[in-house]
Every structure is written in C-alpha cells, then in structure tokens.
Design a protein that fits this description.
Number of helices: 4
Number of domains: 2
Structural class: mainly alpha
Order of helices and strands: HHEEHH
Length: 105
C-alpha cells in the first residue's frame, strides 16, 4: 500500500539522515523536494518523495512569468494603433480626392 499524506518525523529523519529541522530543510532544499516548515516541524508530502525517488520533477508549483506576454501585448497594441492611424489617413485622403462623375446615370 502506498502511503498518503505527510511523512512522519521518523520517516523524515530516516530519509534525510538529520534529526533537526534545520538540517532536514537544508537536505530537502538540496534535493529539490517541496516542503513547508511549521516552527520546528517539517511537512513533506509522500507524493513528492515518491516522485523524487522515481526521478520525476518534484519542484513546487511556480507562478508563470507573464511579463514577456505583457510586453508582447503592448507591442501588438502599438502596431494596431499604427495600422488604425494609417487606415484613417488613407480614408481621409480618399474622401479628399475629387470624385469622378458617374456617367450614364
């Protein structure tokens, strides 16, 4: 049966080889295993340990960096404004040209 939830303090000591939370946290960080510290207790989920053992990525969820998209959106909006201005100029120029008489009407 696969364990679920969090590692027990004994499991954590056995895995890290460290008895104190500072040493355990240092080891967990060096191995890239997501964890939380609550005072002198370390919280480590079994699913992350299993992933680490299997060689899967165990990194914690990180908020994506959308700053590049915001820059692209600003560039796109600037281009749209430029195209709209050019179109308005063409339409204004077309209205300013003298109209050819309609023959046969």
């Amino acid at each position: 049966m696969t364990p679920t939830g969090f590692l027990s303090p004994e499991d954590l000591r056995r895995m890290t080889g460290r008895a104190r939370a500072n040493g355990q946290e240092e080891w967990l960080k060096s191995e890239g295993i997501p964890h939380r510290r609550q005072g002198s207790d370390m919280l480590v989920m079994w699913v992350h340990v299993e992933g680490w053992i299997e060689g899967r990525s165990t990194s914690a969820l990180v908020e994506p960096d959308f700053s590049g998209l915001e820059k692209k959106q600003a560039e796109y909006e600037a281009k749209c404004a430029m195209w709209a201005a050019k179109r308005a100029q063409k339409e204004a120029a077309a209205k300013a040209r003298p109209q050819k008489p309609a023959y046969g009407l």
